[in-house]
Design goal:
Blueprint: E1 3-11, E2 23-32, E3 36-43, E4 46-53, E5 59-67, H1 69-79, E6 85-94, E7 97-104, E8 112-117, E9 131-134, H2 143-148
Antiparallel strand pairs: 1-5, 1-8, 1-9, 2-3, 2-6, 3-4, 4-5, 6-7, 7-8
Amino acid sequence: MAIEIEKKFLLKYLPKESLSNPVFISQGYLLNKKETVVRIRLADKKAFMTIKGLTTNSARKEYEYSLPYDDAKEMIDLFCKEGLVEKKRYKIAHKGFIWEIDQFSGNNTGLVVAEIELEHIDQLFEKPDWVGSEVTQDPRYYNSNLIQNPYSTWQL
């Protein structure tokens, strides 16, 4: 059984000097419910189907499978009618961890978050100076919720 333990943060500033080689991600949802999400993701020329369970205390069951790119693109076109989440993803190594910075576009332009995956919920890690407030428990920042409630519609 695969478990994803992830923490999500806003950024104090974008560490532009560390950003290189972005991966362009486009993803849609075949099933988008609180207790189960089934996502199709195109990441450059690779494609994946991911099934995620209910998030409890920053952890959830997650299963991910490679798909043929053309099949995944067709599934998105045929079955993901709510729209897409689009973003550039950068990876930055810091103190033994890989941080992923997602810079969103489309209806979520202006939103930038950093994520870190952990091996266990209480694992200690040092935040880079560009990492700000934690938003792990705020469902507005879940990619699956950005489809129905995009960042461009938020009252800030």
